[in-house]
Amino acid sequence: MPALPLSTVADTLLARLHRLSGGPAPDDLTGQQLMAERAALAGLTFKPGESPGGSCRLLTTRDGIIALNLPREDDWAYIPALVQQYCPPPEAGDWDQIQSLVAGCSSGSLVIQGRMLGLAVSASGERSGVHAAIRPDHRARLPANSPTDQATNGPENGSTRAARGSPRVVDLSGLWAGPLASHLLWRCGADVIKVESSARPDGARSGPPEFYGLLHQGKRSVALDLRLPSEQLVLKTLIARADIVIESSRPRALRQMGIIAEDIIAAHPSLTWVSITGHGRDSPQGDWIGYGDDAGIAAGLGEYMRRACGTVQFAGDAIADPLTGITVACAALSGWQRRGAGLVSISLTDVVARAIDRELAIKGPSAFIGELGAWWHEAQGSAPQCNRRAVTAPVAALGEHTREIIDEFARHAEPTRC
Fold first, then answer.
1. Between 3.30.470.20, 3.40.50.720, 1.10.3720.10, 3.40.50.10540, what CATH number should domain 7-45+128-411 receive?
2. Per-residue three-class SS string for 246-261
3. Cis peptide preceding 284, ω within 30 of 0
4. 13-33: per-residue pLDDT in tens?
5. Distance in angstroms (rounded) separating the CA atoms of residues 299 and 279
6. Helical H runs in 3-44?
7. Burial 167-187 (b: 16+ CB within 10 A, else e)
């Protein structure tokens, strides 16, 4: 099977990460590997109009194509409100009924309404929000010697190191992009602490166990009841003692707990805080839900698939997630080496859009479209192939290290920076 779409961009990002880490590139990591292994391990296949994971569909509207992602069972109850009709919600999995409901609606109205309802919906080819894949926010609060563009500036050989021998990463993210980023940082020597809500742990725990193990091996696990002020205080302490924070929530979620990224960074200028969003951190994009498959459609990849094979299609498995994960790892490690990069906003949609721009600049439209067509011709009905990476370190149970880490931080107390 031909290489997955945009896997050469993933290879370029991995090469940058390994230059930053100062170590040799491992034999078991390629862009193709990281982009294919979830589908390969879960036995997911590529089908017309349907994401490999099955939760996202391409739907024909009155004037275009939308990608609607319904990964949570509760999402299906919002369909009548999405189409603004009085009707019973479709049964979970009844995509034919949803297609009949949206056929007479405009793409724009569905996207606007869906985002107001908290659904992950995108119009094919939209490119919303920030136009750079990596953008430092609140630059006035960055250290004086920080770069203004984390994507391009600064040393690439890992020669500038923070005071700590290796970074301490507090990973608040879930699903794929953020955990992949912290996995790659763990491979570079970082101490990674995965923090989850005990009431709503990472949804990836219910996915393929082998894939979860690959991304979470070697990490320590903290589980907190974030409904309690005392547990929120513990989270603030963990964040204040980190070198790198990775999170993928909508900005308002942490703000509601009194965790204000901008204020923490102002008090802790050596911190690199990477915020992963679907479409951007700024208003109104910061309130929009986005996942890997619908973000790729929003970025325009489906439109290039249309030119390659005649119809809008998904390319790869949740393609924005692995690309963003590697991008986040590069930004985080670079920021730590520069002794803090402040708040770095990375959007799934813009990572893919920027990757498409890179492929077009290097290969030209004809070659890029030709590669997409060749891949789609071979990929339909099949699962991607890749080497099975081994899990070589323990995979922690939920909250296994909570008491250990709280005690460790108490023994080595530092002045709080929150």
1. 3.40.50.10540
2. EECCCHHHHHCCCCCH
3. yes
4. 999 999 998 876 777 799 999
5. 10
6. 7-21, 31-42
7. bbbbbbbbbbbbbbbbbbbbb
